[in-house]
Amino acid sequence: QSALTQPASVSGSPGQSITISCTGTSSDVGIYNYVSWYQQHPGKAPKFMIYDVSKRPSGVSNRFSGSKSGNTASLTISGLQAEDEADYYCSSYTRSSTWVFGGGTKLTVL
Amino acid sequence: QLQLQESGPGLAKPSETLSLTCTVSGGSISSSSYYWGWIRQPPGKGLEWIGSMYYSGSTYYNPSLKSRVTMSVDTSKNQLSLELSSVTAADTAVYYCARTPRYYDITTGYRPGQYFDYWGQGTLVTVSS
Question: Closest to A46 (Cβ–Cβ): which among B47, B62, B64?
């Protein structure tokens, strides 16, 4: 199974919105609405941010939102804050009953 | 509050077997609502799913690692274990344990859910002679 494709880095200024893409195939992202997103600060464990493409777990800010079109899922962060600077990973369930992650995207808040 | 804590040797020799334990506190590993999984992250790289397991024995493994991976559960100790055999330098990584909901799929029956909602802090394992 191949990793999902994410941009290596994105950046934005405080208050702006950014979007991180996550491209898979018709065997994972494209066939299921089972995309999740994780935030990881340096030296820390990943934090669960989005599930089932666009649902937010309790306690996650509504500045974080998810969507999907075809084989590509997206994470949008609005009202960018300094604390949002982190690595972000997408994940998807696959047709083979396995789970695949993206390569990660480093978000820099300018 | 659910907590997961990985433990094990921080160093493994090439060709040997890496063994790690994840201790669950604040919840039961025998819960009918969850599977438990292992995910790893090589230094400076992305996440890789290793496998997921239900306490009664149902397992799902990453095909690329399946021949070398064994997961098990000790319900008396509330622990999940991972063994990875024939390790090489490429297995050097931070190893995380995580919880995933148990999901009912009408086509395949019960299986691990689509996300990992609680994670341990991770433990670094270096493979080196």
Answer: B47
Count Cβ atoms below 10 Å from residue B113 Cβ, excluding itself.
25
Q: How many residues are listed for chain B in this entry?
A: 129
Distance CA A18, CA A81 (A): 11
Of B77, B79, B61, nearest to B69 by C-alpha is: B61
* pLDDT tens-place string over residues A8-46: 999 999 999 999 999 999 999 999 999 999 999 999 999
Pairing, β B34-41 against β B93-105: antiparallel
Helix (H) or strand (E) holding B23: strand B18-25
Contacts of B70 (CB under 8 A, 6+ apart): B82, B83, B85
| Nearest chain A CA: its distance from B15 CA (Å) | 24
